[in-house]
Write a structure and sequence with these properties.
The structure holds two protein chains of two kinds.
Chain A lengths: L2 H27 L6 H25 L10 H15 L5 H20 L4 H5 L2 H12 L2 H30 L9 E3 H23 L8 H19 L4 H8 L1 E3 L6 H21 L10
Antiparallel strand pairs in A: 1-2
Helix pairs in contact in A: 1-2, 3-4, 3-6, 3-8, 7-8, 7-11, 8-9
Chain B lengths: L5 H17 L2 E2 H10 L6 H13 L3 E6 L7 E6 L1 H26 L8
Antiparallel strand pairs in B: 1-3, 2-3
Classes of the chains: A mainly alpha, B alpha+beta.
């Protein structure tokens, strides 16, 4: 395992452990006769184990060809792979690029070259490749679209889940905590783009950022409640409720907008960076 | 010359188009060929150029099985690539002539 593999596995196990620990604390504090907390704990342990397995299969396990690389080239390839995977490139283009890079590295390795000699700094190499396919302005736009889609899906999903809890009321009566809305905004427009940037820079600790960010926000909220509750804005954010669907049509509008943004993102990805002028 | 300059990369583009004109090439083979000719380049320099030439339509790519791992991409020159190569050769010839002229001159009149 490379250092990057170990860090990612550690982050996955840590997150699974935190979820299981939360369910355990809930079980301990609950009434001993209830089956719900026990089931929740068992489910969280199973879910955690499953998520660690998925992380291993998707992010750590060497794909075809990659297993043929020596540790030197493998570490470099993983850095390039992570940078490409966290970029706005389409799935097909990503696959093509990674196959090309793998072929280059296997050829170099066969001829006895070292990774540093062949590709230099893998972060810079990945950045050069991405610059071929994505202009800086377009990358910013794609990141913004990603953020809007993520935010829309989180708001829509949480609103629907809250409505399902008490489906007898109308969907326009659903209220979301102000803090949760702030949390979704921070995740969609700060945490996710920052995580992608750190991954592209070859920093495997970026995988712990979502967990750290979530824990940090909850901690900040609790500290704000303890020390800053006198401020009206803090009380509003922490305890206020937002009627996220002012009318029954709003969830459908949000869904249509999210789908439209997603299609716009796909179209932006497909358009070539530069088109050669046709010659007579 | 600094291998990272835009001028050098532009020259490499023209050279790669010329190499592709002679026959199909793949990424590592292009690196080997350029180094055989006297350039000192590596995969990190050449692969982005190949990708750029492909996205611009100067090179067409086909994939075939490789003995080493994933399918290998082979590049060949397109009609747009031939036109680009012609432009490059004309520009290069003109610039080389001008630079040679500047280098050959002994001095110039410094009129007040």
């Amino acid at each position: 395992m490379t250092r990057r593999d170990k860090v990612i596995l550690f982050c996955a196990v840590l997150l699974a452990g935190l979820v299981a620990a939360t369910a355990l604390v809930y079980w301990i504090g609950a009434d001993g006769n209830e089956a719900g907390p026990i089931l929740l704990f068992c489910f969280s342990v199973a879910l955690g184990a499953g998520s660690v397995w998925v992380v291993h299969r998707t992010l750590i396990r060497a794909r075809r060809g990659e297993a043929l690389l020596d540790p030197d080239f493998r570490a470099a390839y993983q850095t390039v792979r992570d940078a490409v995977a966290s970029s706005p490139l389409g799935t097909r283009t990503r696959g093509e690029v990674l196959d090309d890079v793998l072929d280059l590295m296997l050829s170099s390795q066969r001829d006895g070259r070292h990774a540093a000699e062949a590709i230099g700094n893998p972060v810079t190499f990945a950045s050069e490749i991405l610059r071929v396919y994505l202009r800086p302005g377009r990358r910013w736009l794609l990141d913004a679209l990603d953020g809007l889609v993520a935010w829309g899906l989180m708001v829509l999903g949480s609103g629907l889940l809250l409505w399902i809890e008490d489906a007898e009321r109308s969907i326009d009566q659903v209220r979301l905590d102000g803090f949760l809305l702030v949390f979704f905004t921070v995740v969609a427009f700060i945490l996710l783009p920052l995580t992608r940037r750190l991954i592209a820079a070859g920093n495997p600790w970026a995988y712990i950022l979502p967990v750290a960010g979530g824990v940090g926000m909850v901690l900040a909220a609790e500290l704000a409640r303890k020390f800053l509750y006198v401020l009206p804005v803090v009380r509003t954010v922490l305890d206020g409720k937002v009627r996220i669907f002012p009318s029954v049509a709003v969830p459908f509008v949000i869904l249509v907008i999210v789908i439209g943004l997603f299609i716009a993102k796909l179209q932006l990805r497909r358009r070539p960076v530069r088109k050669l002028h046709s010659r007579g | 010359m600094n291998n990272d300059t835009q001028i050098f990369k532009g020259i490499l583009e023209g050279c790669i188009l010329r190499i592709a004109e002679r026959g199909e090439i793949y990424g590592y083979r292009a690196v080997e060929e350029l180094n055989r000719l006297g350039f000192d380049v590596n995969e990190a320099t050449v692969y982005p150029i190949l990708a750029r030439l492909q996205t611009r339509g100067c090179l067409a790519a086909t994939k075939r099985p490789s003995p080493l791992g994933p399918d290998r991409k082979y590049y060949s020159l397109t009609p747009d690539g031939r036109a680009e190569l012609r432009d490059f050769m004309e520009t290069w010839g003109r610039i080389r002539g001008l630079v040679d002229k500047v280098m050959e001159e002994d001095g110039h009149d410094a009129e007040g």
